[in-house]
UniProtKB/TrEMBL annotation:
GO terms for biological process: L-proline biosynthetic process. It comes from Amnimonas aquatica. It catalyses: L-glutamate + ATP = L-glutamyl 5-phosphate + ADP. This is Glutamate 5-kinase. It comes from the Bacteria. InterPro entries: AceGlu_kinase-like_sf, Asp/Glu/Uridylate_kinase, G5K_ProB, Glu/AcGlu_kinase, Glu_5kinase, Glu_5kinase/COase_Synthase, Glutamate_5-kinase_CS, PUA. GO terms for cellular component: cytosol. Substrate binds at residues 61, 148, 160. It is an enzyme of class 2 (transferase). Keywords: Amino-acid biosynthesis, ATP-binding, Cytoplasm, Kinase, Nucleotide-binding, Proline biosynthesis, Transferase. Its EC number is 2.7.2.11. Pathway: Amino-acid biosynthesis; L-proline biosynthesis; L-glutamate 5-semialdehyde from L-glutamate: step 1/2. SUPFAM superfamilies: Carbamate kinase-like, PUA domain-like.
Length: 378
């Protein structure tokens, strides 16, 4: 479906923030219980990538499958409460295993349980984003799963692929790596048809993919359909997705080296263009920053970031990460952007040089109030 399979792999070599998603079938060796040896391998690779300066978040399934093993159940229960109970039981083993494997490398981990609803709610979305950013800043690996105790739709369907994509959108990841039990996406289900052909590179939004993707196996349930949908979702924030075999040797490191492995599902736009398009469509602003003439010029003519020194007034009660409008002193809109400081902090640093941020706030986040990558001129 594309002639330039190798060329786009450079995206992965350049990606600085990855979300890695590991499916149930793979993680539990098709339901035999947590595959500790395989887990140790993925963890070692993630640690190697982290040492190369890549920020990583892990989305891991396997709670239900592991809970089933612990309860001696041969097949996935039909009752939702039984599934939820299995997830609660299995999640203990899951995080315990990740904790100890990462600890061997001196890397800390954190458990984060989320539902799709959490990410649809603006406030909780921002809270989750701040937590994940703080964890990344501290170099701690977040191990994310669905909060199966309170969510029923997700567990019925069994799909962490979507969660992986939502997290990729949330943290603006450049790459979503979905590790599964197949080499990648084929033109039809390879379990059903041995003549199926692996697709090395496709456009995530190509509608033909949905017809080629089938359902999943006994333990993982989403199958290829949810992976394709996840890639489409991730593409919205300009994130590229790779579907690859978690059993492949040093798979993550080889992907980071740009090797042509698995299936690469490309977004139409890069991350910056996608973010700017999203911003441009974001008409509701949580507040306004009134800029002096010098700042207006720096934005309009110099395409620079907005520094606190150029802000005369802060209006509204916004939080870090929200969209605010930048206006000139006559109230004419100049730009919209994602602000790096909440309204109270912005008011305290307004008119001040960036070197003073730490002294004024007791900490310094970014030197700019709005980074130019997060800003669209109006
Ligand atoms: N076109 C396809 N290409 C590859 N795998 C496919 C395709 N269609 C369906 N599948 C199935 O999807 C399964 C992987 O999904 P799933 O069982 O949900 O695993 P996971 O737990 O990793 O999410 C594969 O084992 C395969 O049988
Ligand atoms: N959150 C649940 C279900 C997720 C699930 O099965 O997803 P997947 O294996 O990725 O298709 C679990 O951890 O078992």
């Amino acid at each position: 479906m594309s002639a330039s399979a190798a060329s786009q792999r450079i995206r992965l070599q350049q990606a600085r923030r990855w979300v890695v998603k590991i499916g149930s079938a793979l993680l539990t060796d098709d339901g035999r219980g947590l595959d500790q040896q395989a887990m140790a391998g993925w963890v070692a690779q993630m640690v190697a990538l982290k040492r190369r300066g890549i920020e990583l978040i892990l989305v891991s399934s396997g709670a239900v499958a592991e809970g089933m093993v612990r309860m001696g159940l041969g097949s996935r229960p039909d009752s939702v409460p039984a599934l939820q109970a299995c997830a609660a039981i299995g999640q203990m083993g899951l995080v315990q295993a990740y904790e100890s494997h990462f600890r061997e490398h001196g890397v800390r981990t954190a458990q984060v349980l989320l539902t799709h609803d959490d990410l649809a709610d603006r406030q909780r979305y921002l809270n989750a984003r701040s937590t994940l950013r703080a964890l990344m800043d501290w170099g701690v690996i977040a191990v994310i799963n669905e909060n199966d105790t309170v969510a029923t739709d997700e567990i019925r369907f069994g799909d962490n692929d979507t969660l992986g994509a939502l997290v990729a959108n949330l943290v603006e990841a450049e790459a979503l790596i979905i590790l599964t039990d197949q080499e990648g996406m084929f033109d039809r289900d390879p379990r059903q048809d041995p003549d199926a052909v692996l697709l090395p590179e496709v456009q995530a939004l190509d509608d033909r993919l949905l017809a080629m993707a089938g359902g999943g196996g006994k333990f993982g349930r989403g199958g290829m359909v949810t992976k394709v949908r996840a890639a489409r979702l991730a593409a919205r924030s300009g994130c590229a997705t790779v579907i690859a075999s978690g059993r492949g040797e040093r798979i993550l490191e080889r992907l980071a080296d740009g090797e042509t492995l698995g299936t690469l599902l490309l977004p139409e736009q890069d991350r910056l263009a996608a973010r700017k398009q999203w911003l441009a469509g974001h008409l509701q602003h949580a507040g306004r920053l009134v800029l002096d003439a010098g700042a207006v010029r720096a934005l309009r003519e110099g395409r620079r970031s907005l520094l606190p020194v150029g802000v005369r007034q802060v209006e509204g009660s916004f939080r870090r990460g929200e969209v605010v409008a930048c206006v000139d002193e006559a109230g004419v809109q100049v730009a919209v952007g994602l602000v790096n400081y909440g309204a109270d902090e912005a008011a305290r640093i307004a008119g001040q040089p960036s070197e003073r941020i730490e002294a004024l706030l007791g900490y310094a986040d970014a030197p700019e109030l709005i980074h130019r990558d997060n800003m669209v001129l109006v």
